[in-house]
From TrEMBL:
The keyword Cytoplasm does not apply. The keyword Protease applies. Residues 117-220 form the Metalloprotease TldD/E central domain. Belongs to the peptidase U62 family. Keywords: Hydrolase, Metalloprotease, Protease. Pfam families: PmbA_TldD_1st, PmbA_TldD_2nd, PmbA_TldD_3rd. This is TldD/PmbA family protein.
């Protein structure tokens, strides 16, 4: 996408201005989406974006800018503007560019570049809509959306790196709304993968529609959740959003390097119950949060964050490595050429244990089964969180007795890690989007069901 000779000239210019390190991130991004609302196709959108991000290091100071031009003089002009206040005598020389190759494990059979497959996508959404509405007459609305995008990147830097990648993303989102008089409730699922439109083969449109409709119906007639501290069983899959938000971000050098994380000085220490093992893995085949290389050009890897309760690694980008001394983990990510990369999560999850869901529920005399988590808020630095439970049930004398609504879980990430006493076998992943200082990136959360011995539950009474 960018002539290597042009890239080398711009990098040489950056080092001539005194930069320790220079990088060009070239991106071509194509997207297509279709949305169905009220039984009709409501939106069909497509777009193409192209740009080049320029990043310079002066010591631990990061300078970043971008342009939509491939012209050498324009790229040098932006570089000069970035370095204007920090310009100094040259102290580094750029290595010759050496194109790196790797073997991609994320195959794509129906990429967006070969066609948007709009008719097939519309048929899928209509079938999902029909299935949701046929589940119960109280399903008053269904909203479905399919997003497919293709991101081509090319990276050049002053160490001699020249590497590229093409990423194919497909995600389906389904929302069902149930209504009974003035009462309303929703069901939601949004599976996604690092693949093309062949992802639909893994999905059953009818099952997806029925699933979100049943979620909505369960909550429509549910009782208010009781409040207070109690044991909670957190369900598998999207239940992992709590670890992602309340703990995962605290293990990124984005916060660790600034000592803005409570874990910044805990390496090698017990930060969780010994039954807890947590991983951030970018290598999982075709998973939503996977990548071949990160947005700094490093091949991705599997990173064991917590082993038997002990903190064993952080997620480390290039600058995070310079600041902390920890080796990079292939975790440098960004939304697009408009953002400088920082350490970010990929597929982040708690690994399976050896307990069954029935055993966990049977061990609770009075508590909550948070089968499906929803959204929430987290306090950066401390991991204090408040998460809504999308689908919840009361547990009495070791049995699930009735559905609940208005349940929230309130605690801190560090505290919850130590309160986990049982980890299940029913491991599952769920797709999501994660926002941080380098924009919004595809990430996967996950876990088996697990038991938290004591957590504050907020309810409706």
């Amino acid at each position: 996408m960018l002539n290597p000779a042009t890239a080398k000239a711009v990098i040489d210019h950056a080092l001539f201005l005194g930069a320790d390190f220079a990088e060009l991130f070239v991106e071509h991004h194509q997207s297509s989406s279709v949305e169905l609302t009220s039984g009709d196709i409501d939106k069909v959108n497509s777009g193409i974006d192209f740009g080049i991000g320029i990043r310079l290091f002066f010591g631990h100071k990061v300078l970043y800018g971008y342009t939509n031009s491939t012209d050498e003089e324009e790229l040098k002009r932006v570089t000069g503007l970035l370095a204007a206040k920090d310009k100094r005598d040259q102290i580094a020389n750029a290595a010759a560019l050496n194109f790196s190759r790797y073997s991609s494990k994320h195959l794509c059979k129906q990429p967006l570049a070969q066609g948007a497959n709009l008719e097939a996508k519309i048929a899928f959404l209509r079938e999902t809509d029909k299935a949701a509405r046929s589940e119960d007459e109280k399903i008053s609305q269904f909203i479905g959306r399919i997003l497919q995008r293709e991101q081509q990147i090319e990276i050049f830097n002053s160490t001699g790196l020249h590497i590229g990648d093409t990423r194919h993303y497909t995600r389906v989102a389904a929302t069902a709304i149930a209504q009974n008089g003035s009462e309303q409730s929703t069901g939601f699922e949004a599976p996604g993968a690092l693949t093309g439109w062949e992802f639909n083969i893994r999905l059953d449109a009818r099952e997806l529609g029925q699933h979100v409709a049943k979620q909505a119906m369960v909550k429509l007639f549910a009782e208010n959740c009781p409040s207070g501290e109690m044991p909670v069983i957190i369900g598998n899959g999207f239940g992992g959003v709590i670890f992602h938000e309340a703990c995962g971000h605290l293990l990124e050098t984005t916060s660790v390097a600034k000592k803005a994380s409570v874990f910044h000085d805990k390496m090698g220490e017990m930060i969780a119950n010994p039954v807890v093992n947590a991983v951030d893995d970018g290598t999982m085949t075709n998973e939503w949060g996977s990548i071949n290389i990160d947005d700094e050009g490093m091949e991705t890897q599997r990173t064991q964050l917590i082993k038997d309760g002990k903190l064993t690694s952080f997620m480390v980008d290039h600058m995070g490595s310079l600041k902390t001394g920890f080796a990079p983990t292939g975790s440098g990510r960004r939304e697009s050429y408009k953002y400088a990369p920082t350490s970010r999560m990929r597929n982040t999850f708690i690994e399976p244990g050896d307990s069954s869901l029935d055993e966990m529920i049977g061990s609770v005399e009075h508590g909550i089964f948070a089968k499906k988590m929803g959204g929430g808020s987290v306090q950066p630095g401390t991991g204090e969180f408040n998460f809504a439970v999308q689908e919840a049930y009361l547990i009495e004398n070791g049995q699930i007795t009735k559905p609940l609504k208005s349940a929230t879980l309130i605690s801190t990430g560090p505290k919850v890690l130590k309160e986990i006493s049982m980890v299940g076998k029913d491991f599952e992943l769920a797709a999501g989007m994660c926002g941080s200082v380098s924009g919004s990136v595809p990430t996967t959360v996950g876990q088996p069901a697990l038991k938290v011995d004591n957590i504050l539950v907020g309810g409706g009474n």
